[in-house]
Amino acid sequence: MRKALMAGNWKMHNTTAEARQLAADVAKACRDFDDREVLLAPPYTVMAAVADVVKNTTIQVASQNVCWEDKGAFTGEISPVMVKDVGGSAAIIGHSERRQIFKETDELINQRVRGALKFGLTVVFCIGETLDEREGGKTFTILEEQIRKGLAGVAPEQTKDIVIAYEPVWAIGTGKTASKEQAQEAHAFIRGLIADMFEKNVADQMRILYGGSVKSTNVDELMAQPDIDGALVGGAALDAESFGRIINFQKM
Questions:
Q1: Which of 26, 170, 200, 226 could staple 131 via S-S, CB 3.0–4.6 A?
Q2: What is the pTM of this model?
Q3: Average of pLDDT values for 216-226?
Q4: Does the keyword Transferase apply (predicted)?
């Protein structure tokens, strides 16, 4: 049985004081779960502070991106070793904002994935189609291309450290959300593709999160879908009460 993962991506928000307070408030909302995990992805500048706040809890800390090398002349990047040094255990890679705004390619994202895995980080690997691609009937084509290129060179034994996050670009920060049927359809396709690329037991064990305007009002129906194993939450993760309700989703 796959354990749910509820992840909060804080993006470019929160000073140190704000981050410490939000992390503490989120920690209060987390009961002693045995069927779900919580992950916070704060900005690099406050990762150490957040890790310190949650050090005696089960909450995990992730970076919002990561380089593929442990050190070197990579201005503006953060290495897997640095992430682990400040208490991080995971990294988000391939987020739609990195793809859309910063023009990161599938090949660059693949470098990041393989580097993160090499240095022992859990990878939250993001994929998703734009509105034009969905309306053009290209959703599955785009998802397959992103997955095959993004996970190229990944060994089957490394897949235990990969979480996939399906985030339709048209539903991020827009207030729009894929219907539970649309989300389930995409997740089922992704799981089938992973089975084809690796093997069925890998697909059965891999967690696939939904990301795209997840809110306290829709989390229950999304989490009731058989192939949705958690959520990658943006805006709603910046409010402890809202994110707390998402973490404490009700099984339907």
A1: 170
A2: 0.97
A3: 96
A4: no
